[in-house]
Amino acid sequence: MKDPKFPKEVFAPTITPNELREHKRKMERALDEASEAIQVARAEYHYLVYGVEDTSRKARR
């Protein structure tokens, strides 16, 4: 994930740069985990509804 350059005014002035970096990393990990969970849920839903694995999604990877 790219590190976007936000204006400094976006973040609370009471947060230190190290703390900001730590929280941004936590947020990035949470988003990555959520993305993976969505992919798994999509595959499971497809299997439950259609009774077969979605091979069209595997072919795109």
Strand content: under 5%
Q: Helix/strand-derived class?
A: mainly alpha
Silhouette: elongated
**Count of separate DSSP helical elements:** 2
Tell me about the largest β-sheet: none
**Average pLDDT number:** 86
Order of SSEs, N→C? Answer: HH
Alpha carbon gyration radius: 18 Å
**Runs with pLDDT <50, length 5+?**
none
> How much helix, percentage-wise, in residues?
55-70%
Total number of distinct structural domains: 1
Instruction: Report how far the terminal alpha carbons are from each other.
Output: 19 Å
Number of strands: 0
Descriptive overview:
- It is a single chain.
- With 61 residues, the chain is mainly alpha-helical.
- The protein has 2 helices and no strands.
- The protein is elongated, with a radius of gyration of 18 Å.
Short description:
By secondary structure, the protein is mainly alpha-helical. It has helices at about 15-50, 55-60. It is elongated, with a radius of gyration of 18 Å.
Feature tags:
61 residues, single chain, mainly alpha, 2 helices
Task: Walk me through the topology.
Elements: H1 17-50, H2 55-60
